[in-house]
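User: Thanks for the earlier help. One more: Diaminopimelate decarboxylase. Can you show the sequence and predicted structure together?

Assistant: Of course, both are below.
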Amino acid sequence: MNAKDLLHVAQEHGSPVYVYDADTIVSQYERLTSAFAKVENLRIHYAVKALSNISILKLFKQLGAGLDTVSSQEVQLGIAAGVDPSKIIYTPNGVSLEEIEKVASMGVQINIDNLSILEQFGAKHPKVPVCVRINPHVMAGGNANISVGHIDSKFGISIHQIPHLLRIVENTGMTVNGVHMHTGSDILDIGVFLYATEILFETAAKFKDLEFIDFGSGFKVPYKEGDVSTDIEDLGEQLSGRFNEFCKSYGKDIALAFEPGKFLVSEAGHFLAQVNVIKQTTSTVFAGVDSGFNHLIRPMLYGSYHGIKNISNPEGKNRFYSVVGYICETDTFAQNRQISEISEGDILAFSNAGAYCYSMASNYNSRYRPAEVLWHNGQAHLIRERETMEDILKNQVEVELELNSDLVEA
């Protein structure tokens, strides 16, 4: 998509608005499958939590992908999108046994990440095959909040607890048909990731009924020019060969699975916001937009970088701006960023807005969540309407309260 296309979306659907380019999603998916073309059985499960709009899920279904889900609601969304339950893997954390049983009844692949639930589930449902999530105690990821494979993480069954895991499997008679890991997001060092895969291969060899090994994801995408990202082609070359070797030693061909989210949709997304006010202070120039961290929380939560372009004046002279939102507390998208000269009414486009942006949006300050648009074949397709006050009030219940007259007078 170019600036002209984005401006067209803003004019047609207003702002703020999220826009996703279908061609970029398809290109990223094909790039990943090509990198692992030497693997006979490759499974790609799109991580629904990255961007859960049902039209996006239908697009991935058309591409042949399955889904990676972390809640019963995401499972229901996937089924509503027409995805075969057998192509959905469910990897929750800290949920009740009842929720896991509910999802298992839908025919979805269950992935369990703690010994307590594994033992309870195996005792009650020994004939339901499960995958087990292993914590390899390998630190990976670009931020402490998204590094999930280290020793202090709440995720996964520790590799030091494998003997306990094997005892539970033997005692319950349950079948483990997959092993899984996820070290964290924004993986830069392929060597570290490959080290973790060796731990997973060693663990996988202890189970005789495997159908797949799931290596999670966390592939880093570039956020600005010259940014470092995961070399997916190099990883594909190295891991494919090692995986095929493992299959030979294991005695049968099993599937290699991944669960990419950000890699597939981050670069496809743009977030468009209109500039409400230019405010000059003694130290900076603020560009205040008609949005805030209620719509795009990643810069405030993770310190994440999102490129910002003034698509209303792309050829203008660069000036320094701090781009801020309208939320009633510190609400900063970027500080002292060089952007082509901004005027009130201009449209700013935030890049890398496809993953974990709309899906983390809220109604903070009672603001409406934005519309979502899918750009496909040169056309803008509305895939989620902008919220209204009716949506804000929909589930609220008004009650009549009689206050004590003494309290009222006081």
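User: Great, one quick takeaway?

Assistant: Residues 141-150 have pLDDT under 50 and may be disordered.
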